[in-house]
Task: structure prediction
Amino acid sequence: MNKGKTIKALVRFIMVIYLVIHVGFTLFCWFHLDETLFEFFTLDALGVLLLSVLSLLSITTVIHGFIYLKNDPSRHYLLYHVALLALITAMSGAYLANGMTTVWIFVEATTLAVAALIYHDRTPVALEATWKYIFVCSVGIALAYLGILFLGFTVHDARLLHLSFSSVTEIAKMANPLYLKIAFIFVLVGYSTKMGLFPMHTVTVDAHTVAPAPVSAFISTALMNVGFLAIFRIYGLFSATTILPFMNNVLLLSGLLSLLVSAGYMLKAKHNKRMLAYSSLENMGIVAIALGVGGIGYYAAILHLVLHSLTKAGLFYQIGQSYRVMGSYLLDESGNYMKLQPAGATALLVGFLCITAIPPSGMFISELYLLQAMIARGNYVYLVLTILILCFVLYALLTRVLHIVYSQPRTLSGHPHGKVSPWETLPQYFLFALVIFLCFIQPAPFRNIIESIINTLPR
Result:
């Protein structure tokens, strides 16, 4: 018993030290933007912005992980945090990598780390989801890399084959547009396994469902940001070529299909974590549409990505707490949450307002920018379809959240109700407060770094 407590105490100490180092490194990056470190990493604006989000969510995820694993055996406690540390490191490397090969290495590392975290509860369902995640993600990442290699082999210049982003720019200028289109499709489909876009969304949905709640928060936010970053970098490199309209159309179609699929599944969702997983698919669809529309849509895409990360992490933490109180993730076995845990139920309602872009949610601003971009570009068909589908999403989330908070459970779970300290909800309120704050005020450094990200894109 004493040995187990010692191991847990040591793990907590190491994680706290690691977080301090990570936050310190993130601050260092802000003061050294656009510098290159160790040849393979460049502190560009997008990488540093997403690294900042990762630093913040790492702190809240570790806090909730300590609570979630409080009663776990010391061995499981140790393995969980080793895998979590590896995941944070791998995502940090992927954000700052300046070449496709380096990105590929770190993204594959995230697959292995997440697999260990998905299997944490060691159930048959967790094992199935783990193997599915490893297989589909590995195939997807291989497809993405195959697309870039295919593009590289079309250029008979050995100096350009190391596939740094600068060399990919040179390749894009020289390559046949058909090869560029094939490469972009491969990259989009491949990295959709991480971003959670249609058609490779199923693997992330299954992972959300069985992983510990703090891990689900990471998969649906910081890890999805890794997939977006990989796709965005190739989009930015190819945007100066003739295939820009093709890429935009592909992104619009993929985003709209993601919205459609998420709405369909959310309307029949009976599992609380699965409901949030399909909400992540919906929001990544919005990001893809914003990127495909262009103009002010570029700003909307980055802003929405950041705000979704903060909101969805808070919601997954809260759903994990609701499980400890109600004893079930099943919708029919959930209910009366406001009476059982007022602080948690209030947080869930605030999170619902934020994720559905209802003012004062900052996501209202990002979606408003998206609608403005659609009108400015004349994408009226996509505008109508997007608004219509989002109405179904709003209905699906509203009915389920209100049932959890106020209604009686339809069936009894058979599990005793637990207790959660209201203080455990504070990190969630902090994240939601940031989302609401950004609805009214976007500080100059925050706005400037987003502007610097999209300045190189065609308007």
In short: The CA atoms of residues 124 and 130 lie 10 Å apart. The longest strand covers residues 36-37.
